[in-house]
Write a sequence for this structure.
């Protein structure tokens, strides 16, 4: 008779086996729980480009505010604000960091109504500097009006080009030509004599000044030449989330905005500490971080009627210039909480 290898379990062995299996499953679950939780966390893909105005976002990432809120925030660097908007439009990004051109975002809104909601802006002017015209350090040019017929570079994207041309036009610099150039190349282009001036954003002016190759011709130019008041808030950049993300993930949305707000508060109350987070996100690092002028920041629940009016005036410029095919109403784009 052939013997089999089948084991026969005695009744006393069965409870021990059940206990062993139970302990094994419990241990496996405990070990696997962190991985399971991580797998269930919602990735929040945020587009940014390397300008100083994105500081609250950089701070919230590097200081651990998002992590403390249990969020999986994934920064995505782009060459320009237009690419950030296109990523939101295509579903490759769930939002934008401060510094992303508000005009670029509006173009996405026109293409896909209801695309996003703005929860914070970074207003700038002559006091809170972001926008500026630079010239080579030894240039004889003393005013924007003297840029008549000159070669000018601007940051990439329709917002930067339109604003550069508008400032030149309103300052009387007729005949100037404007070409797009990645913001990281502005200082080098001036130093090499490839262009006579650039319309750019901080920290470019600080980089050029600290390496002794460029100087600021005029700062806060959009408030002065577009809004008509050097101290007016130019809401040129905005932090936003797509409405699709807000609808699908309301709890994460609230946590994200709360953590982002901590980044804004840090920038407001302790700018020296916050400035350190420019490293790795912009061309500024080390002792140079103390030299960068900072934009202001405004949350969705801090807007006054005058702020909306200036923001609307900025948007209406793009209608006037034929960039927007229809008027975009600022109030409809603000996050309501």
């Amino acid at each position: 008779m052939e013997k089999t290898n089948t084991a026969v379990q005695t009744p006393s062995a069965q409870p021990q086996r059940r206990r062993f299996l139970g302990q094994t499953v419990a241990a496996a679950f405990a070990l696997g729980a962190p991985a399971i939780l991580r797998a269930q966390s919602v990735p929040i893909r945020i587009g940014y480009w390397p300008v100083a105005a994105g500081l609250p976002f950089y701070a919230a990432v590097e200081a651990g505010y998002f992590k403390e809120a249990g969020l999986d925030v994934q920064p995505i660097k782009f060459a320009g604000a237009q690419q950030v908007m296109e990523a939101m439009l295509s579903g490759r990004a769930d939002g934008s960091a401060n510094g992303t051109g508000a005009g670029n975002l509006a173009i996405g809104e026109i293409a896909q109504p209801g695309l996003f909601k703005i929860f914070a802006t970074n207003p700038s002017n002559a006091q809170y500097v972001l926008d500026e015209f630079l010239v080579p350090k030894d240039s004889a040019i003393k005013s924007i009006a003297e840029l008549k017929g000159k070669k000018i570079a601007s940051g990439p994207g329709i917002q930067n080009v339109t604003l550069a041309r508008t400032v030149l036009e309103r300052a009387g610099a007729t005949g100037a030509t404007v070409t797009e150039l990645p913001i990281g190349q502005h200082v080098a282009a001036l130093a090499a004599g490839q262009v006579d001036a650039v319309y750019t954003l901080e920290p470019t002016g600080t980089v050029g000044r600290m390496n002794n190759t460029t100087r600021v011709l005029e700062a806060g130019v959009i408030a002065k030449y577009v809004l008509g008041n050097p101290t007016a808030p130019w809401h040129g950049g905005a932090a936003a989330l797509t409405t699709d993300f807000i609808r699908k993930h309301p709890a994460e949305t609230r946590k994200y905005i709360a953590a982002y707000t901590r980044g804004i508060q840090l920038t407001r109350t302790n700018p020296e500490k916050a400035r350190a987070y420019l490293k790795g996100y912009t061309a500024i690092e080390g002792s140079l971080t103390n030299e960068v002028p900072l934009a202001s920041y405004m949350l969705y629940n801090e807007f006054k009627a005058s702020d909306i009016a200036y923001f609307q005036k900025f948007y209406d410029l793009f209608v006037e210039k034929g960039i927007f095919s229809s008027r975009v109403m600022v109030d409809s784009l603000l996050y309501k909480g």
